[in-house]
Amino acid sequence: MIEEKGILFVLSGPSGVGKGTVRKALFEKDTGLKYSISMTTRPIRTGEREGTDYFYRSKEEFEKMILNNNLLEYAEYVGNYYGTPRDYVEETLEAGKDVFLEIEVQGALQVKKNFPEGVFIFLFPPSLEELKNRIVSRGTETEDLVRNRLMAAREEIEMMDAYDYVVVNDKIETAVQKVQSIVRSEHCKRERVAVQYKKILEDDLA
Q1: Residues annotated in the binding site for ATP, as ranges?
Q2: Mind listing the UniProt keywords for this protein, alphabetically (predicted)?
Q3: Residues at the annotated binding site?
Q4: 198 pLDDT exceeds 80?
Q5: Which domain-ending residue is among 96, 115, 144?
Q6: Within this chain, do residues 1 and 57 fall inside the same structural domain, yes or no?
Q7: What is the pTM of this model?
């Protein structure tokens, strides 16, 4: 019996590319993927649950985890920390379940440094013009902010070489199918299964 460990899949890309939309559509299908639960120091809100929405920790606890390298990535936003706890990810993978993390580019590069065995997928806009249209259509950004976001997107696109796969998000359904294909193909990679198969052969000869 092959007991396969799970794989960490990291979906990333510039702001406005549609990471959340693709992740939501992916999880509406029965993929067996486990969404990575983040940790935060912000107070729990009404209707939220510990271990479902976030893992809620004090600032002191969080900073201790940073010092002990217990986070695959973290960032500070509006006075609160947010991060991905290493233990949760590793325990889920050991249980044979795939973990899916949707994150900004800087966070993905932190994860790659701390967990290089993950599979990194870059979600790419069909064009910069389309990316601009998506950011503008949100209706929440000023002209200056749109310009800043596009400049940041250009810089993030140049970091694409750090990723294993690139998926163009022209149609959500097509992008989801490509991500599913990546998940399937990664489980068939020789180097992932060779160790288990060799063990079976050894056990059979013993």
Answers
A1: 13-20
A2: ATP-binding, Cytoplasm, Kinase, Nucleotide-binding, Transferase
A3: 13-20
A4: no
A5: 96
A6: no
A7: 0.85
